[in-house]
Amino acid sequence: MTSAAAPKLAHEWVIAAYVPVDEQGAAYARRRGVYRVPATTKVSSAEVMCIHCRRPYDEALHTECAGSDPTLHGGPVGTRKRRTPEPHTEGAVAKPTITGNSNAARTRRSRAAGHTGTLSAEAA
CA 20 to 30 Å from 91, out of 45, 75, 77, 100? Predict the structure, then answer.
């Protein structure tokens, strides 16, 4: 009897950093969501954490990453399986509902109240 060992779920470490920028760089980064750091820029590390489970480095170092399990997140958008619809029970009939906010419902209420939809000579 052989059992396949489950693959260890590895962390992917990232650094939250403070990058000094000027006013123009800050506006560009805000607008585009990207800022290219010059090679001579010194970056201060604010925090080291796993990008998947969002846990700090010291807390998550010797543990498996719970956030990299694709079954928890549904996987990448292009590879997710479609949900299968639940089977209908016998004899169950879906009744269409009319909401009070639809144009058709407003038209029905208006016509029921006797409005024709045209302006009279007095109103014009």
Answer: 100
H-only helix segments in the chain: 23-32, 57-60, 70-73, 103-112
Task: Give residue for tokens 């029921």.
Answer: 112
Q: For CA atoms 18, 19, 22, 26, give the dihedral sign.
A: negative
Query: Residue 17 in contact with residue 45, Cβ under 8 Å?
Result: yes
d(CA 61, CA 10): 10
Q: What backbone phi and psi angles, to 5 degrees, belong to 67?
A: -80, -15
Q: Which residue bears the tokens 């209420």?
A: 109
Residue 15 identity: I
pLDDT in tens, 56-84: 999 988 888 877 665 655 555 566 566 66
pTM assigned to the model: 0.43
Going from the C-alpha of 3 to that of each of 6, 63, 92, the distances in angstroms are 9, 22, 45
Instruction: Tell me if residue 16 falls in helix, strand or coil.
Output: strand
